[in-house]
Amino acid sequence: MKYRFLTFIFFIFIILCPQSPSTVKAAGGEAQEEQPLLQFPVMSDIHIGGDYQKDRFIKALNDLQMIAPHYQAIAMVGDITNNGTEQEYDTFNNILNSTINPASEKIITMGNHEYFEGVYSPSGLNAQIYMNRFFDKTGMPGDKIYYEKWINGYHFITLGGEGFPSPDDHDHANITEEQYWWLKRTLAKNADPSKPIFVFLHQAIDHTVYGSDDWGAGFQDNKLKDILNRYPQVILFSGHSHYLLNHPRTVFQDGFTMVNAGSVAYTYSDSGSKMFSQGLLVNVYANHVEIKARDFTKSSWIQTFTIPTPFQQTYEDDEKPYFLESSKINLEKNISGDSATLSWDAARDNTLVDKYVIKNNGEVIFTKNMEFWENETLENRIYAEIPNLSPETAYNLEISAVDAWNNESLLKLNTSFDTPKLFGWKLQNGKWRYYKEGVPVTGWAKIQEQWYFFLNDGTMYTGWLTLGNKKYYLNTNGTMQLGWKELDGKIYFFNNEGSLQLGWINDRGNWYYLKSDELLKGWQLLNNSWYFFNDKGVMKTGWIQSAGKWYYLDTKGVMKTGWIQSSGKWYFLDSKGAMAIGWIAVGDKWYYLQTNGEMKTGWLYEYGKWYYLKPDGSMAKNTTIQGYVFGNDGVWKK
Predict the structure, then answer these.
(1) Are the CB atoms for 567 and 548 separated by under 8 Å?
(2) Are 585 and 559 in contact (CB under 8 A)?
(3) What pTM did the predictor assign?
(4) 3-state secondary structure 93-137
(5) How far is residue 530's CA from residue 541's CA, in Å, rounded to a whole number?
(6) At what angle do helices 127-138 and 86-99 cross, to 10 degrees?
């Protein structure tokens, strides 16, 4: 309610005042926009590593240069690199120095990712090495990762996690007592309630800005919050969560102001990853600070926050969301054994309904997070599938609405139902099972014309399966493999029963030969006979040409030698199967094979000499035929 009231007062103030705080009158009487006394962008979680992150960083810097070309400073709130390597720092510096306003001051914070090279090194993390690298590579002042700067009369204070609270905790910040004492002394320097103090820390204070519920700094002692509370003019910027800047709780106030700076590399929400790139532009005026959230992916503004100076509590909300008395829950379709799809009338709120919490008998079983960045208008009906229900169980559900400030509705929506027995495919704890009448199937099962194998606990099996002396392969979707399959670069064949088949294989009229897991190709000697398989493993028959020579394979694929008859013509294949041409001696007889391999009969003229080949192809010699005399060499003697 307080949020709504303060907003109303602010608008009345704007209407009644002759000049708003952001406008002044020019000499000609025309209103001109007031120029900020100080302007600086704030970015976080740049994660320089691959080309994708580099491109996003460049786009963000170019966008800022377009909308605010004369900013005096630029702040980056940690995780500027992905792993804290020297190469990543060098890439970051090259992009930054070639793209930013060269006259601007830099404020750079060390994040948890700046330690990650050491976290994953075999020798373990030596935090000081990576803090020293941060000083050297960023050129920030002093010899600590916490430091101060004064820019245009405004105080900038940067804090940093000095390693991690424990070896297994790589997300939370470790703030030493020395850093806390330094902060107390530094905050007191020339502190003026009418002038903001800008503080930067990579991780947010837990349970403050959007995203800090799950991705806060992990402080349990409230030391930092207690110190900053002494200076209401503090504006603390943080990142780390990557959470969207579209949320109302981007700014949170509790004695001082805290701001989520978003993420340049990629963003998150309670419902998962979103591939936006976002950051802030801060304008400092005499009596207020304007914080404008920017979407670099769309080059558009998201929302604007105004922080009065001296500090006033302008951003809080204790008004609860509410359902209308007429609101109802419907079951959208038949309830299954492990899930139910519901719909209900949307709740109302003065800011934003962030989520709906569903409880069964008082225990939270599901949270429906709203995609607030997508919906420009209020949804009238909310739909949700409630997973992981138990079969044959009575459920008494209660739905409450929760707003952006974690206020929960007083009125709850209720419904009851009973779940039936399980049936069909179910994914349980990452494993697929198939149910019939509430019982998981085991062993072989044919489902929609496909065969599957299930273990004794009902888990669908994938991969190689040996049963007795037979081997099967179940694909990644669980279906039994039939026919050819390449696995890890090796070829296998599974017959119509699904079992692995070796040796001779007939597939669609073609013959293959599998030796172990090797599909034979080229010439192969099998059972004392030669066969030829093409580059796809298919056994060839008939005439083939190999290495410039012709061979003949019979209908069973066996390479032939000696005399063969093909298409009414005679050919001779030598002992290696190659088709002969020219003169050959077989036994005590000579024959002549033409260039196409066909056996010659009748008269033959070669090199100025005449020969005669009998009907059986043999050369005539020491004989007279048709009055022609042939000598021992077969030459006709004229």
Answers:
(1) no
(2) no
(3) 0.71
(4) HHHHHHHCCCCCEEEEECCHHHHHHHHCCCCCCCHHHHHHHHHHH
(5) 12
(6) 20
**Distance of alpha carbon 458 from alpha carbon 516, whole angstroms:** 32
pLDDT digits (tens, 9 = 90+) for 47-84: 999 999 999 999 999 999 999 999 999 999 999 999 99
C-alpha 208/C-alpha 327 separation (Å) is: 31
Count of other CB atoms within 10 angstroms of residue 577: 21
Tell me the CA distances in angstroms from 380 to 319, 328, 499, one per residue in order. Answer: 20, 12, 56
Paired with 220 in beta bridges are: none
Pairing between strand 490-494 and 503-507?
A: unpaired
Structure tokens of 200? 């930067």
User: Does 310 sit behind a cis peptide bond, omega within 30 degrees of 0 on the bond before it?
Assistant: yes
Say how many C-beta atoms besides its own lie within 10 A of residue 238's C-beta.
Answer: 30
Q: CA distances (Å), 293 to each of 68, 75, 227, 260, 277, in order? A: 13, 14, 27, 10, 11
In the structure encoding, which two tokens stand for residue 116, read together? Answer: 């990650």
Q: Can you tell me which residue has the tokens 């070896």?
A: 167
- Please name the residue ranges forming H helices in 246-377: none
β partners of residue 321: none
pLDDT in tens, 144-197: 899 999 999 999 999 999 999 888 899 999 999 999 999 999 999 999 999 999
